[in-house]
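input
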Amino acid sequence: MHALVADVRSSTLGGSGTLATPEASAAPVTSPTSTELPEDAHDLVDPVTQRFALRHMQVFTGVGITPTATVTLHDAQRGEDLTDAALAKNGPIEAIYSVIQRITGLDIDLLNFNVSATSEGQDTLGKVAVRIASRTSSPPDAEGSLTSYGAQPKFTGLATNVDIITASANAYISALNRMVSHDSADTRASHKDRSVNI
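output
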């Protein structure tokens, strides 16, 4: 019985942040984002909106095997790494997305999932695009409001990597970060709207 293993580590780990695994002494693995963007493009990412970042991911899957995923995310807001694991019936991507939801505590609907190649050849980058929405959004307001017409916010995440499993995780986290940032902005705006000058 053979299992396909996808093992990803962030190159930023070190010192006390290194995971205590048997593979820790192996040759360093580059960050999964190193093949996604040119070096100068990392400056375009707004660090405030990137609450969650992929630190470590290990996926077991194969024929006759229940797919499992173990994921570690760094939560910038809490300043700590969070690890959990999940099983799935429908493949490794479902396992990854399930464990990310468990870690973040968010209930998410996956509306669209698309994988494509950026060029030809076995070493081409795989591009993954996902679209998500929150399942825990408030129910529709009174007739005539935006939400009553189905204007529920949807969030898109994109990622590229030679490993489509890694790209799938990064795309999902990208969309999730957009959703978290949007919810935070909405919360601040609603508090401002409710403020009254005294």
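quick obs: The beta strands are 4-9, 52-62, 65-75, 80-87, 108-117, 126-134, 155-161.
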